[in-house]
Amino acid sequence: MIRAVFREAPRSFAAACFLVLAALALSSCGQGGAAKVPAPVPAAPSADQAPAAPAAPTVDPRAAFATSRLSVGLPTSFSGLRRLPGPRGVPRAGPVASADGRYVAYALGPSPEAKAAGDKGAATERLVVAELAALSGHFNSAGGADAGKAFRDISLASPALALLAGAGEGAPLFVVAGLDGSLAAYGWKAPPSEEAAAAPGRQLDKLWEVRLETIEDLLALPGDKAAALASSGRLRVLDLKSGAELWKLDSGAKGLALAYAPGILVAAIAAKTDKDSPAAELVAIGEADGRELWRRALGSRPRFLTADQERIALLESSGELTIHAVSSGEPIAQAAARLDPGLPAILANGRLLAGLAGGGSAEFDAATGALVRSWPPGEASEGAVPAFIAADEDRLFEAQAGKLLVRDRRSAEGTQVFSERFGAGFQGAGLQGGDRRDGGAVFAAASGAVVAGGGLWFLGARGELFELGSGRESAASPLSGLAPPQAVAEAILVGMEKFIPRGGAPLERYLGFDLFAEGLPLDPEPLFLALRIKPDKSGKRIFLADAKGGRILLALYGEEGVDLGSNVEELGTDARLERYLDAGKTYWLVTGRISGEEGRYRVLSR
Q1: What is the rounded distance in angstroms from the CA atom of residue 289 to the CA atom of residue 292?
Q2: Quick check: 604 and 578 in contact, CB under 8 A?
Q3: Interval 228-248: pLDDT, tens
Q4: How far apart are CA 574 and CA 554, in angstroms?
Q5: The pTM is what?
Q6: Contact 372, 363 (CB under 8 A)
Q7: Which of 155, 167, 47 lies closest to 110 in space, CA to CA?
């Protein structure tokens, strides 16, 4: 996942040179302690192709799919909380965001009021999709015809248990796991062009449906795939484009929870009923072929699993949380406090964040389980059950008792409170303690919040869609338009930080996306600009920058976000990069000044 970032991009020659040299020195050092899963290596060129492929990438693009639950892409400050004029109902699942950041989807059940009023449209299970850009100017209003066009919905035959977003054939799709065992994808049929991905007002279509057992957990995987863990213990990996089954593994025991680390699926399953059997088992399975990698007995049954590249966090119904190694399943540590068993933990970059039993939240050292800092419940929130927690590198977001608390992760002080827009019922539908999966439906509390368009999106108790944002007039994502899928964009972002760290800068100030145009004058408003290239024929290509002074970066990334090298890595003195490109494949040439004078320059190729 992306490590957050700086307050202001270094512009001086000395500062930028220091960062580049430091990054090069660090990149030559080994990294210990992490579970190593081999990254995909580009296929070797055929005999008639030019030189061998570059070295394997240092950043695994699959890391963007790890179930760490860390939020990325949020602004450095927030201007307020906004409520959208969308449909209402009981929250079932979501929200989730499309890969391009343009849409937020969620599932609603019928509200008691709609049933009592005989409103057939609102008295059904529904999948709702909101187009963020179309909502600009309609926040905190009663709605109206224009705002209503931003929402598309479709009836579901069964309550939604889980929801995920995928890319599909060039257009976003949303996969819903139903209580009746159905797994169905909704969205729009493959458009004739990227620009026509989803015309305003176009209704949702059902793209495919398969019948499975009741799903306990559903995850998106790299390469437009999904993993579904059934209550029967059967684990399937499916192709999101068609719903076709790629492989399955039958554990023969009840499925409990699922997580993903690069190359590995980790499933918690209840052990078979035997007095000598453990309460549950943790099983690691190879993502590519379903081969069992290791198995670890557990003393109790986990409710939630969270994983990053090195560790797995298991949250039990008792509120105990244990941390295990991804490479072997060996226990590492235990969190030094009793946690709220209804809230999944957040695990990333050596830290673990979680809600505390009885209210409040805390941050722990993921290597030892030691408490780093804790935050008490907000004013008038004593004993309140939090509806969700979320976090980015700098802040923790905790929703409870009708308030959204934004905590500063660097200290126990400095909490910002947003409360005026929630209404009395925000705390959650049927979530006042007890099992948060009452009735078999995963409510908004279990699903939490999602980042899209530079804001944090979540559901209220009546199905209202809220955004905590920067107050920009447009809700469009900086990863919209010409940007690649979000996982690819995040892989590129991670790769760029070895040149100049992102720090705390908003995404749109650090990296932008556009088409490559021969000789077009460039003066990137973001620090770096990724230019899309799709060659008509295969062959060697040389890229040159004609800067009058200073150093220009030229870095190339493949269509999956694989790092294909840069002129800085080659320690060249000129702005020149030479690589072999395959016809029909998409590449991203990232450029920007890393030292010296500012001003326009051109990038040429031959």
Answers
A1: 9
A2: no
A3: 999 888 999 999 989 999 999
A4: 10
A5: 0.67
A6: yes
A7: 155
